[in-house]
Design a protein that fits this description.
Strands 17-16-15-18-19-20 form a six-stranded mixed β-sheet, with helices on both faces. The protein has a five-stranded antiparallel β-sheet with strand order 6-7-4-10-11, with no helix packed on it. It is 24% helix and 36% strand. The radius of gyration is 28 Å and the shape is elongated.
Length: 376
């Protein structure tokens, strides 16, 4: 009789605690997920901040938090289970009643992009590991990783070709007598523009900025149409970085920049067309448009974009970045140059890839695809 009674008591306890946990485990349980930065550049560090709080007396002996993160986020803790596009992180907690936990984990963002974290899954088990019971927490967190603007040393021949040729043909030259101010040193700044006194005073490299002799406008056009039967992702990523470098370089020189691309936005699916601007906010908008390009989405033909050159402006210098050299683009390029516009075509190419862009035009071949990145 005592054995039967013991079995009934134990069985009753098991069922009772299971019912209690199934009903109350999620009550007053909260989980907050956030990034410490909204924007950053490829290769920079971001902190993921998590706050888990159990605002009730009932303890949670086994609580699993399952988070889906982009594959390009490199954890300082180590590797997690990965798929082709994502990685899965599982954290297990024994959470007492009325307890709050705050955690920070550092990640290196190895690839540009716009990353939104999906709902976070939670699983809980009762005292005897029965269950599980499940619920989702809304993450409501996103981060934009800008393409890393190339350094001058990574451009080699194109840097002198691009900046030198355009300057000579359109007189976009800084006037050494028109001093505009001092700003932080950028990778594309000339060594002779470094202000060593200001650098010593601030502890960081600072550069002199001069107003251009003639105010011009630069239009950067990025074409992501594939130039072979297979997309060369490393070359495309370097082309995006080149567009970021040029935008930063010319805006840093006080020259308004407009931007257009047929690369499709990873959220809206549309194309970016940004009219000329000179502010830091405008440059950030260009970087954001570049970050959100989804190379897996098939782009329109560049020449199909409406008002690609933003109207007829003779003072606008057009820089086309395109590995694709089809007849439609060649015809369009010949047309704008025949109208008297100053234009340059930069054709990114992978190592060992042949030249299949048209000859007899001002086209700069650039060996790209040698830089690293998780998008590649």
């Amino acid at each position: 009789m005592q054995v039967i009674l013991a079995i009934l008591v134990i069985g009753g306890f098991v069922l009772l605690q299971r019912k209690i946990y199934q009903k109350y485990w999620a009550r007053n349980l909260s989980f907050k997920f956030s990034f410490n930065r909204k924007t950053l550049y490829e290769g920079e560090r971001v902190l993921i901040m998590e706050e888990l709080e159990n605002r009730k007396f009932l303890p949670l002996p086994w609580l699993e938090i399952n988070i889906t993160l982009p594959r390009s986020f490199i954890s300082e803790r180590g590797k997690y289970i990965q798929s082709s596009e994502t990685q899965y992180r599982t954290d297990i907690f024994a959470l007492p009643g009325n307890k709050r936990l705050v955690m920070e984990t550092g990640y290196i963002c190895a690839a540009r992009g716009f990353y939104r974290i999906p709902d976070i899954k939670a699983e809980s088990f009762d005292l005897l590991m029965g269950g599980p019971s499940r619920m989702n927490f809304a993450a409501d967190a996103s981060v934009t990783v800008f393409p890393r603007p190339l350094a001058v040393s990574e451009l080699e021949v194109p840097y002198n070709k691009i900046t030198g040729d355009i300057a000579m043909r359109r007189f976009i030259l800084p006037d050494p007598f028109e001093f505009r101010g001092i700003r932080e040193y950028q990778p594309y700044d000339s060594f002779r523009d470094i202000n060593f006194k200001a650098s010593a005073r601030t502890g960081e490299l600072m550069s002199n900025v001069f107003d251009p002799t003639v105010t011009q406008e630069i239009l950067i056009i990025l074409n992501v149409q594939k130039y072979s039967h297979v997309i060369n992702y490393p070359v495309c990523e370097d082309a995006i970085r080149l567009a970021a470098f040029l935008a930063g370089y010319y805006i840093g020189e006080g020259i308004p920049v407009s931007f257009a691309t047929n690369g499709r936005d990873c959220v809206s699916g549309g194309e970016a067309m940004l009219r000329s601007g000179l502010s830091r906010t405008h440059l950030t908008n260009i970087y954001e448009a570049l970050a959100r390009i989804d190379l897996s989405m098939i782009p329109k033909n560049l020449t199909e974009l409406p008002n690609l050159t933003f109207g007829n402006t003779d003072d606008r210098v057009v820089i086309v970045i395109s590995g694709y050299g089809g007849a439609d683009l060649v015809e369009w390029y010949d047309k704008i140059t025949a109208e008297g516009r100053t234009a340059m075509w930069i054709a990114p190419r992978g190592t060992g890839e042949g030249q299949d862009v048209p000859t007899g035009r001002d086209i700069v071949l650039w060996e790209a695809g040698r830089l690293t990145g998780a998008n590649e």
